[in-house]
Amino acid sequence: MDFFFYPSSVAVFGSFKEGAIAHEILRNIVEGGFEGRIVPVNPKGGTVEVAGRRFEIREKLEEPVDTAIIAVPAKIVPDLIDEIGPLIKGAVVISAGFSEVGNEELERELVERARKHGVRLIGPNCAGIFGVHGKFFGSFEVRVKPGGLALISQSGAFGGAALAMGNDEGVGFSAFVSYGNASDLNESDFLEYFADDPNTRAIALYIEGVKDGRRFLMALRYATSRKPVIVLKAGKSASGAKAAASHTGSLAGSYEIYRAAFRQAGAIEVEEMEEVFDAAKAFEMYKKAGKRVAVITNSGGPGVLATDKLERLGLEIARLSDETVERLKSFLPPQCSVKNPIDLIADADYERYKKTIEITCGDENVDSLLVICVPPIFIPSEEIARAVIDAECDKPVIVNFMAGELVRDGIELLEKSGIKNFPTPERAARALFWLSRR
């Protein structure tokens, strides 16, 4: 499927009036820096100018391209596929009005025409695709920065919101695909593809329901054997399942069956949207982590919250060795607690954090560290960020700097060194839980 995510040429079909979907997709492709050939197509012809480039609108496609992006009325899509089939490898059908509104026959016809020409389909009723490392933004959704997360979404709107949220959370993407009604290619195909994609380090999947459970389980097992797969399942309740059926025409089915399948395959199931990105951030930094956690904090309350959450998630609060305790006592003020969680108290500075991280990291009873910083106004958060960056530790270190303006500069410094921040102790604890699942 490289012709979808790393194409050398693309044709866009639809209206190129300002604000029309095809116009917005064309603008995204051009502004995203796509280096291949771009062919806008509309029977009325004319010209279109986007992002400082002027294109002649072809009345019909007359030259081969890798991928066609189609945003025309549903009823004419099958005939269009028949016409351009010999010239394309794949088609992304943005158009809605197929099985999701009861037009199963029109969707069947679309698939038959595509198969006749050996064309693979994404959609219909979808929001398009991104091949971020191929500088290909074939969608009207917000563009994202390059990274390691491939997002597979049955819902176009969810996908768009997730991309925007990922930008805010500092997550980089390798690809995005909204597959809508899954008339041809579906979640299983994309799981298998991204499992082997060298630019993808983790896969996030939003699903409402699948049509072929056995195939899905095989694809999920294949993908999780190679990379972390983060799953957000919608349609868990009876009402949610009904809503899913009217949304993408999918059968949500019994949630218990899905949950068992996720567990069997080793997928990381999350409950909420923000958790998708917390898990993605964790796996961008580390492949896995053990269950025994040391908590280092300069504030007792957040340390207790983190400890509570870790234990509720089934992780262990590491029992520090006598040697580690003595080494910590040797330089920490007597007011500090050297039991786990280790409380460095409010005036903890660069040296106190750095040395504590290094000593604790060396303890054989510790698999990973959760470092919390709530800086007082007299200690800049950048100072503690530098301590985290400079500390020599070969185990996973998850960081919770909070909150707001006080830690903004410190978080920025951490980001530049590839260290992601988790805004609350509970979210940081969950990150370690997901790493432990691998």
Summarize the structure.
With 438 residues, the protein is of the alpha/beta class.
Task: Set down the secondary structure blueprint.
Elements: H1 2-5, E1 9-14, H2 21-31, E2 37-41, E3 47-50, E4 53-56, E5 65-71, H3 77-84, E6 88-93, H4 104-116, E7 120-122, E8 128-131, E9 136-139, E10 146-153, H5 156-169, E11 173-178, H6 187-195, E12 202-207, H7 213-224, E13 229-233, H8 238-248, H9 255-265, E14 268-270, H10 273-285, E15 292-297, H11 300-312, E16 316-317, H12 322-329, E17 342-343, H13 350-361, E18 368-373, H14 381-390, E19 397-401, H15 408-416, H16 425-437
Parallel strand pairs: 1-2, 1-5, 5-6, 6-7, 10-11, 10-12, 12-13, 13-14, 15-16, 15-17, 15-18, 18-19
Antiparallel strand pairs: 3-4, 8-9, 8-11
Helix pairs in contact: 3-4, 5-10, 6-7, 7-9, 10-16, 11-16, 13-14, 14-15
